C-alpha cells in the first residue's frame, strides 16, 4: 500500500519554510498532496487558482508532489484521496498547542489517519505568509523568503493596489 500524505494549508503565499516541509515530507511518503484549504471566511491575497499555479510551479521538480485544493474537513478530504497521513510543519513551541488541538480533533473524526509533525529548518522558524505579505507590501526584500516566481507574483499584486 502506498503511503499518501496531505500537507494542508492556506499557502497565501507559499514560502521557503513551506517548501522545506514539503520537500522533506516528499522524501518520507510515496505521494504528497499539497492541498490548499478553500476557506470562504478568509480574505486571501491570492485566489485558490493562483496559489495552485504558484505551488505547481515551485514544486515541479518534486515528482511525487501533487497540488490540489479542498473545502470542508481535512480528514474527509484525506479519506477521499486515500491519504493515510497528514503532514504539519512546526516553527516554534508556540505552534504546538494549536497543532495538538487540531490533531486531537482529526483523530477523533478519523483515527485511521495519522499526523506527522516536521520541524522547519531553523533558518525559517520566524517565517509566515503573513510576515512575507507585509514586508512585500512595503517593498522590503523577500528574495530569501520565497521563490522568485512567488516574489514576482507578490510584487505584481501590490503594484496593482
TrEMBL record:
GO terms for biological process: coenzyme A biosynthetic process. GO terms for cellular component: cytoplasm. Residues 6-134 form the Cytidyltransferase-like domain. Its main location: cytoplasm. Pathway: Cofactor biosynthesis; coenzyme A biosynthesis; CoA from (R)-pantothenate: step 4/5. Its cofactor is Mg(2+). GO terms for molecular function: ATP binding; pantetheine-phosphate adenylyltransferase activity. The record marks 18 as: Transition state stabilizer. The keyword Nucleotide-binding applies. Gene3D superfamilies: HUPs. It catalyses: (R)-4'-phosphopantetheine + ATP + H(+) = 3'-dephospho-CoA + diphosphate. HAMAP family: PPAT_bact. NCBIfam families: coaD_prev_kdtB, cyt_tran_rel. Belongs to the bacterial CoaD family. This is Phosphopantetheine adenylyltransferase. It comes from Robertmurraya kyonggiensis. The gene is coaD.
Amino acid at each position: 500500500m502506498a503511503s499518501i500524505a496531505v500537507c494542508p494549508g492556506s499557502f497565501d503565499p507559499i514560502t521557503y519554510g513551506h517548501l522545506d516541509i514539503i520537500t522533506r515530507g516528499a522524501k518520507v511518503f510515496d505521494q504528497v498532496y499539497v492541498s490548499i484549504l478553500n476557506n470562504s471566511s478568509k480574505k486571501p491575497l491570492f485566489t485558490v487558482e493562483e496559489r495552485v499555479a504558484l505551488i505547481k510551479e515551485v514544486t515541479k521538480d518534486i515528482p511525487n508532489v501533487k497540488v490540489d485544493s479542498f473545502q470542508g474537513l481535512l480528514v474527509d478530504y484525506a479519506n477521499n484521496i486515500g491519504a493515510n497521513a497528514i503532514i504539519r510543519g512546526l516553527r516554534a513551541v508556540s505552534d504546538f498547542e494549536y497543532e495538538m488541538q487540531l490533531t486531537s480533533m482529526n483523530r477523533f473524526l478519523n483515527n485511521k489517519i495519522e499526523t506527522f509533525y516536521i520541524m522547519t529548518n531553523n533558518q525559517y522558524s520566524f517565517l509566515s505568509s503573513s510576515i512575507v505579505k507585509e514586508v512585500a507590501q512595503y517593498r522590503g526584500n523577500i528574495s530569501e523568503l520565497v521563490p522568485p516566481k512567488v516574489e514576482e507574483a507578490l510584487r505584481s499584486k501590490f503594484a496593482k493596489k
